[in-house]
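[step 3/7] inverse_fold.run input=structure_tokens len=382
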């Protein structure tokens, strides 16, 4: 056996201990978060300093206008007019006086208990569904998807013993929620079916799905609403007409369903082929494999895209103003012309109130989607 000798040259051997160094900066708590997220690099630090400068510059003026100099109570425009010795800020008295119209539109005052009851049941049911440990959660979800729409329509519209209130009298946040919730609930199953149809191997189903998706995605929402309100009655038989709000709901649902289809299709394409083969090896049929294996994974992947579509739809409900329906923003703008309240501060006050309401709803949807992502991704290997 031959042994080769390997010679090594020692270049440097330390004989003394290194001097002690300061401990590493804290990475936990508030100081660690600030250092990691706000001052992690020179560019990040410069942006942070610039944003702080903007906040320091404009925030005091905003606080002064919105709170310190604001008018909170009053009966008419006189309280919102600036005096020589006092400059009036935001006119929250206008919001307080018109709050009922901003929420329910021109719904008759003596019958407002009906939409108030509908909204109370809706928000309570939504909260019960969102909370994971609610007793009988599935039963509540089934009620909200089946019985509640019928109950809500009966209470809002009337009939069968209740006084009829035409949809032309609906308005405010009520119309915003009706259009948004109907579009959200209807677009998700429609989008799933269209996504599956576009990936189908049957030529007829695939062509119909592609044509539907591409047509509706290529048309702006404002055009859909205009066509549904003005053009659709021209193609209907004489004497046949649909309610204006119903036409808007159908148009919004179809348009949003087309966008949702592409979002879901992206999730389906992200599923590995082995998942489909595994489902087939278990003897599952097409619909069983989709319901039990493929769609749960695909929908989990595209949660951000789905919620983004929902948020976009919620904000786009303001476009119903062009067909004579007054949602929250439309109701606020319509009251700007009230001679009893017409004054310079009411426009920025009303628009800021509308922005705050939209932000609360959109931010809530965003945060809950993030919670669902974290919950559904537990145990998923990356």
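[step 3/7] decode complete -> sequence:
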């Amino acid at each position: 056996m031959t042994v080769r000798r390997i010679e090594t040259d020692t270049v440097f051997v330390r004989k003394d201990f290194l001097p002690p160094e300061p401990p590493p900066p804290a990475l936990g708590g508030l100081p660690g978060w600030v250092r990691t997220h706000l001052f992690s690099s020179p560019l990040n630090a410069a942006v942070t300093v610039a944003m702080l400068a903007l906040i320091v510059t404009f925030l005091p003026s905003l606080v002064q206008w919105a709170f310190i100099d604001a008018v909170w109570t009053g009966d008419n425009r006189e309280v919102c007019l600036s005096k020589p010795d006092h400059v009036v800020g935001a006119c929250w008295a206008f919001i307080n006086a018109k709050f009922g119209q901003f929420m329910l539109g021109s719904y008759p005052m003596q019958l407002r208990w009906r939409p108030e009851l509908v909204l109370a049941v809706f928000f309570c049911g939504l909260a019960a569904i969102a909370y994971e440990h609610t007793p009988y959660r599935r039963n509540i979800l089934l009620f909200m998807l089946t019985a509640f729409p019928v109950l809500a329509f009966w209470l809002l519209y009337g009939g069968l013993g209740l006084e009829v209130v035409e949809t032309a009298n609906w308005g405010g946040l009520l119309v915003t929620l009706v259009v948004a919730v109907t579009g959200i609930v209807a677009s998700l199953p429609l989008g799933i079916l269209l996504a599956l149809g576009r990936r189908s191997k049957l030529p007829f189903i695939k062509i119909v799905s592609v044509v539907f998706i591409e047509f509706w995605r290529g048309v702006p929402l404002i055009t859909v609403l205009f066509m549904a309100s003005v053009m659709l009655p021209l193609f209907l038989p004489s004497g046949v007409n649909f309610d204006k709000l119903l036409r808007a709901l159908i148009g919004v649902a179809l348009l949003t369903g087309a966008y949702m289809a592409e979002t879901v299709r992206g999730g389906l394409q992200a599923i590995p082929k082995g998942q489909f083969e595994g489902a087939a090896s278990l003897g599952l049929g097409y619909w069983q494999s989709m319901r039990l294996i493929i769609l749960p994974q695909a929908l989990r992947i595209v949660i951000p895209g789905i919620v983004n579509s929902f948020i976009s739809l919620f904000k786009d409900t303001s476009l119903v103003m062009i067909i004579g329906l007054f949602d929250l923003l439309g109701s606020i703008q319509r009251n700007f012309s009230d001679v009893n309240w017409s004054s310079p501060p009411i426009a920025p006050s009303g628009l800021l109130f509308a922005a705050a309401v939209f932000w609360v709803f959109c931010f809530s949807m965003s945060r809950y989607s993030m919670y669902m992502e974290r919950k559904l991704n537990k145990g998923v290997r990356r």
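[step 4/7] annotate
The mean pLDDT is 89.
The chain has 16 helices and no strands.
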